[in-house]
Design brief:
Blueprint lengths: L2 E10 L3 E4 H4 L7 H8 L3 E4 L5 H16 L8 E5 L10 H9 L6 E4 L5 H15 L4 E8 L19 E10 L4 E7 L7 E2 L18 H4 L9 E2 L1 H23 L8 E4 L4 H11 L10 H4 L6 H11 L8 E8 L3 E8 L1
Parallel strand pairs: 4-5, 4-6, 11-12
Antiparallel strand pairs: 1-7, 2-3, 6-7, 8-13, 9-10, 12-13
The structure holds coenzyme A (COA).
Length: about 325
């Protein structure tokens, strides 16, 4: 079985830390409510950097950590659900910012599951032998999508970026389970923010559905309870399935890095998975939910703390809008 080698990781933390206390200045909430319901104490917002600039900063940090230069990169995959432009894609903007030349650049959007999907795509491209060194970046500037009048959702999310440099990993296990339940899309969505200004032909309104889109649907809309229930079941079941596929047991796993949405979701899923707390990495108290950036930011922090050791078996698991879910197991 051949998988990937993660050569290095990097991240970018935006400049503005917004604590729960600061949230009470514009919505009716409290540190006690947010902390006890979500585990989040603070999150970052990026008032001064576009998403592609955050992505490029994380990418540069990952290259440095991997001991590579932009010239070594022969494929760039960016996962984001908060791009600055409809086109070009973020990967092309990152390519320009870091000075990589000519390589293919693609964006992936499977919301918070984006990093797990992107890593899987990278792994498959590496397995063909067509590409040697792939940069995978997950970057999210969710703050412009957030309705700061909606106290049920605005407290959860933050901005951030993480990146990894990956190459083929000979005799290194890699197993994954990916899936989606598109019929649940209304549980978490944000409509593309068109500004419809269509002409009328023969007096007939066209593109009526776009013209009639309520403005609030162009902000993040969430049914928190539906997402919560889906998340607990989907994460536990994805880990169970990927363990079965790999022939490993949860005892064989050294480190679990879950999507950092809510401490209660993680704890409920962990209970179903029967995994020890000390194997699980949590940083949501400081970052909130940075969507697809959560997992590579966690990888970068774990490396910086010296907690990732070669040979460790790592399990990533996440879920997100779609609704999507995924889990993978690899050897670091
Ligand atoms: C959002 C979430 C924390 C809400 O927790 P909850 O226990 O379901 O809370 P509810 O929505 O039932 O609200 C309970 C009460 O708290 C209130 N409330 C909601 N947000 C609040 C806030 N920030 N501060 C204070 N009160 C709040 C509600 O208005 C409601 O009051 P009411 O009973 O008077 O109507 C929780 O549902 C959740 O985390 N869901 C998953 C969301 C997620 O992870 N999304 C990202 C996926 S990638």
């Amino acid at each position: 079985m051949n998988g990937i080698t993660i050569l290095g990781a990097g991240s970018y933390t935006p400049s503005l830390a917004v604590t729960n206390e600061m949230m009470t200045e514009f919505i009716d909430t409290s540190d006690e409510w947010i902390s006890s319901r979500t585990g989040i104490k603070s999150r970052y917002m990026s008032p001064d950097k576009a998403n592609y600039e955050m992505a490029a900063k994380a990418a540069k940090a990952a290259l440095e950590n991997a001991g590579k230069t932009a010239k070594d990169i022969d494929f760039i995959i960016v996962s984001t659900c908060s791009p600055d432009f409809f086109y070009p894609n973020m990967a092309c903007l990152v390519q320009k910012q870091i000075g990589a030349e000519g390589c293919p650049c693609i964006d992936i959007n499977s919301a918070c599951t984006g990093f797990i999907n992107s890593l899987d795509i990278a792994r498959n491209y590496l397995a063909t032998g067509d590409y040697k060194t792939i940069l995978v970046v997950s970057s999210e500037r969710l703050s412009p999508q957030i309705d700061f009048n909606d106290r049920g959702s605005c407290i959860l999310f933050g901005d951030g970026a993480g990146a990894v440099v990956v190459e083929y990993g000979e005799n290194k296990p890699y197993y994954s389970i990916l899936g989606a339940e598109g019929d649940m899309f209304e549980a978490l969505f944000c409509k593309a923010n068109y500004k419809p200004n269509f002409p009328k032909f023969d007096g007939n309104e066209i593109f009526k559905e776009l013209c009639d889109t309520p403005e609030k649907q162009c902000y993040l809309q969430m049914d928190g309870k539906a997402v919560y229930k889906f998340a607990v079941d989907a994460m536990a079941s994805a880990v169970d399935k990927v363990l079965n596929k790999s022939g490993l047991t949860i005892e064989d796993i050294d480190l679990v890095i879950p999507h950092q949405a809510n401490i209660r979701i993680i704890q409920s899923a962990l209970k179903k998975m029967k995994v020890d707390d000390d194997k699980v990495f949590i940083n949501l108290q400081d970052h909130g939910n940075t969507s697809s950036a959560c997992i590579p930011v966690a990888l970068s922090e774990l490396m910086a703390q010296g907690r990732l050791k070669r040979g460790m078996k790592v399990c990533l698991v996440g879920f997100g809008a779609g609704l999507t879910y995924g889990a993978c197991i690899f050897e670091y």
